[in-house]
Amino acid sequence: MRARNALGRITLTTVLASALAAGAATALPARPAHAAPEPLRTIVDDRGRTLILHGLNTASSAKGPSGLPWIQREDVVREARELGTNSVRYLIQWKNIEPEPGRYDDAYLDDVAERVAWYREQGMHVILDMHQDIYGPAACEGSGNGAPAWATHTDGLPCTPQTPWVLTYVQPAVIRAYDHFWNNTGKHPELVQRFTAMWRHVAERFADDPAVLGYDLYNEPFGGTRQFGFFEGPVLTPFYQGIVNAVREVDRDNWIFVEPQALGPNEGAETSLGTIRDPRPGAPRLVFAPHFYPGGVDIGGSYDGFTELLVKAQFLLWKRNMPAAARRLGMPMWLGEVGGMPASAPGADRFTEEWLRMADELGIGWAYWSNDPGGGGVIDGDGKPTPFARLLARPYPRAVAGTPTEISYDGTSLTVGWRARSGTSGPTEIWFPADSPVVTSTDPRGTWKYRWDAERNVLSVWADPNSPTHTVTVKP
């Protein structure tokens, strides 16, 4: 069972369903033709190339007592070869890192490092995600993950796990645990201080690991009794700033990923997250990392009938509001979680195709939820690929030697366009699952070249150095 914060998906859907279904065109007036938005900033590698991150979340099993996922080395190899993933959102937990105040379990971090090495062997980028749902297991017996018991203060209030599980978020003990963590009560400022120090310890441990691209600071923030503008601006923004400052004391280079609150933005509502400053020398390396879980398709829902109409409206909201927030914050954007449907659900394939197309149109990467065996993952209980695996094994540019201007896949051929950018070296790399693909380019004949790696299904393209723009098309 996935344990994520879906409260916003349910609540916001209930409030907005009628208005959204009545007509997205009314709620979302068309932009003037002359008001084309500025391109999003991009995540870049050590050669200055734009990284398009395709990967999975690893994994629900990492939410258990051990804090470790079910995977073995061969699972990572299979993922890289069969799905072409170049990244992973790897779940870790505060309770496993700091089982007692100020005492860090470095043996646990060694176990994490061992698994990170498996991804490094496949040339994959790792984003370490500090995961939590329903605050932590001590907030409500029988549910939750994340915070250690010593950091959980419920004041003796009751909690009964609910069905669906996301309703457990509004149990009195859970609300109080969040309020104490965020210091809404004014009684426990030490909790955020300890959480910040814990992140500094993790960053110091992984700062020099070449596989670690960065850190996702807090999974799906939930503000307790404070929500929206009362939470994201005055509470969540300075919380992130404090952790960014602490991480930069020990790691100047890795990327830091920040999420808006889950309630609302997961379905496309605007976020009021404020500006965060990166104290590192040079360009900032902060990433805006929202999730996409439209109400109606999550928790075993479907994508047909009225639900499809509702979800299409949320697609439009998310596609407008999340990039707008990334531009306002001056950050690249990455879709940190998306998925949420069993393969057997009506419309599951169409929903998956549509969010994949949306990500391509925005030029952003994603991390699918999740790699767990089962109907919503990429392998079934017998280890065989699910329909989702076939959809996610989608040709894409892994690294682009410039600023992407087009990523489009029609089910057969992939077209990648980009503008040259100073300070970039190395080829554009494209994952394309086919034998000896046919490659064409808009660059003049004789000015560009390519190399095909049949073992990894990776095409490397060196473009004409004298051309400002390039478009490459790859076909089977």
Automatic annotation (TrEMBL):
The lineage of its organism: Bacteria, Bacillati, Actinomycetota, Actinomycetes, Streptosporangiales. Residues 394-474 form the Glycoside hydrolase family 5 C-terminal domain. Belongs to the glycosyl hydrolase 5 (cellulase A) family. Gene3D superfamilies: Glycosidases (3.20.20.80), Golgi alpha-mannosidase II (2.60.40.1180). InterPro entries: GH, GH5_C, Glyco_hydro_5, Glyco_hydro_5_CS, Glyco_hydro_b, Glycosphingolipid_Hydrolases. The keyword Translocase does not apply. Residues 46-373 form the Glycoside hydrolase family domain. It comes from Actinomadura sediminis. Keywords: Glycosidase, Hydrolase, Signal. This is Cellulase family glycosylhydrolase. Residues 1-35 form the signal peptide. The keyword tRNA processing does not apply. It holds the Pfam family Glyco_hydro_5_C. It comes from the Bacteria.
